Amino acid sequence: MNDGLAAALSEIVRDRTRVMTAPAVLDRLSHDFYWYSPILRPQLADKCGDVAVQPLNVDEVLALLRFAGGRGIPVTVRGAGTGNYGQCVPLEGGIVLDLSLMDKLEAITPEGVAVCQPGLRLGALETEARRQGWELRMYPSTLVKASVGGFLAGGSGGIGSVMYGGLRDFDNVRAFEVVTMEQEPRVVLHEGPAVHEILHAWGTNGILTRIWFALAPAVEWTQITAAFDTYAQAFDFTESVAVSADWTKRLATVFEWPIPSFFTPVKNVVRDGKTLVLVMIATAQADAFRASAERAGGEVTFSGSYEGPRTQPLLSDYTWNHTTLWAMKADPAYTYLQCGFSPMESREQFRLLRERYRQEILFHIEFMKNGDGVVIPGAIPVVRFTTEARLNDMIAYCRSIGVFVANPHVNYLEDGGRFRPDHIQLRAKQKYDPRGLLNPGKMISFRKQEGAA
Ligand SMILES: Cc1cc2nc3c(=O)[nH]c(=O)nc-3n(C[C@H](O)[C@H](O)[C@H](O)COP(=O)(O)OP(=O)(O)OC[C@H]3O[C@@H](n4cnc5c(N)ncnc54)[C@H](O)[C@@H]3O)c2cc1C
């Protein structure tokens, strides 16, 4: 089956080297960082595509989807495979559509909008944008590897979100072209509010092939770390910086001890037993920030300029979901949750969680702006895993005390915390993929339509 399918795909793209069937290659291209979750690990380890293909342009994507649709073959898109929940893992085999070769930056407009293909790496975009006086509004800590298309289809926000909100907010994503899996696949332009039909839908209802992504004017940034005796001190100080419009910042992060002890390559910035604060702050404000941190009882342990993705050390490598990676390296029993604490009730929520779970939950805060413009304590707490029941208990308890949880231990959109309650992603799937061939199994509320062959 694989050989026949590979031969047919080779004919479509007229290049056998862009069609892959070697088992090790297929296994790699069929997986992401799903293994972060002890629940997903056994569920997804053996899932694999039958063949992978790397299109070079939208015409090839259209031709490949026409072929696959006509034969009822599932198609699962892959950007760079840095997703966390097995988003790009093909549950029903079929074709893995690897878009890594569609990586052109077409232009940066005078208004600061990047126009690009989906496979463009965010790090490459950040580097070129800064050369032209712009920079990414927000990016995941996987900046260097992750693709623009994968970020829009699978991510939510990251470094920069404390100023610019998430991907869904403030017109950060201006528009994109989407290839559909209809009887006759076509390219559909989604602009303005219509982007929300496809954003963060994991490639289940269309394939992004051309993207208009808003940038921000470039800022000279300084990375600073400060150690505080207590979590409360560190949280209070960082919150005051995060919520104040007077500080120009890209990151405002708090790591409760012992999380900093996991950061072995930068152990010189860590102080034994202390909570670590990490910020990216406008260089023009760096002196004032250091003085302010010291007044609040912190010891500044590092200060150095950010020079783009190649900066050494690149301290964002310890933030967002990289923190979990360092924790798992230190002790594989660690996993994580994705939370949003209440800006008014967070201290009480921390107290309740600590009382109930003790050191099973370690606080890792990432301040971010929500869609209403309010800066909130987002969090990716590090959690010591024992059983699935205990993890589910923690999720349910968080929700019962008003802590939002996007569950990273499920492999479908609906419980991942970012499924649209207005169902516009589901309606787009019914319209653009009525046969349910795009990344099947990931949008579980979808039902194949009567008569869709
Ligand atoms: C260490 C680590 C840190 C992370 N930090 C963050 C973070 O700070 N913020 C954050 O939001 N995420 C974070 N993530 C998750 C992930 O890195 C981001 O979501 C990233 O942007 C995914 O990009 P990718 O190119 O690797 O996408 P992939 O993993 O390849 O794909 C993600 C999803 O999008 C779909 N997809 C890919 N390309 C397209 C396309 N062109 N059209 C339609 N669907 C498509 C795939 O099918 C899949 O469902 C992190 C993950 C890791 C492992």
Molecular structure report:
- With 453 residues, the protein is α+β, with helices and mostly antiparallel strands.
- 28% of the residues lie in helices and 23% in strands.
- The chain has 13 helices and 21 strands.
- The strands form 4 sheets. An 8-stranded antiparallel β-sheet has the order 14-11-13-12-18-19-16-21. Strands 5, 6, 7, 8, 9 and 10 form a 6-stranded antiparallel β-sheet that branches. The chain has a 4-stranded mixed β-sheet with strand order 1-2-4-3, with helices on both faces.
- It starts with a helix and ends in a 21-residue tail after the last helix.
- 51% of the residues are buried.
- The model has no long low-confidence stretch (mean pLDDT 96).
- Bound molecules: flavin-adenine dinucleotide.
Please give a quick description of this structure.
By secondary structure, this protein is an alpha+beta fold. Helix content is 28%, strand content 23%.
Sheet with most strands: 8 strands, antiparallel
Task: Write out the distinct hetero groups bound to the structure.
Answer: flavin-adenine dinucleotide
Which strands sit side by side, in order, in the main sheet? 14-11-13-12-18-19-16-21
Rg over alpha carbons: 22 Å
Low-confidence stretches: none
Shape: globular
Q: Helical element count? A: 13
Number of strands: 21
Q: Estimate percent helicity.
A: 25-40%
Mean pLDDT: 96
Give the termini separation. 21 Å
What class would the helix/strand composition place it in? alpha+beta
Beta-strand content: 15-25%
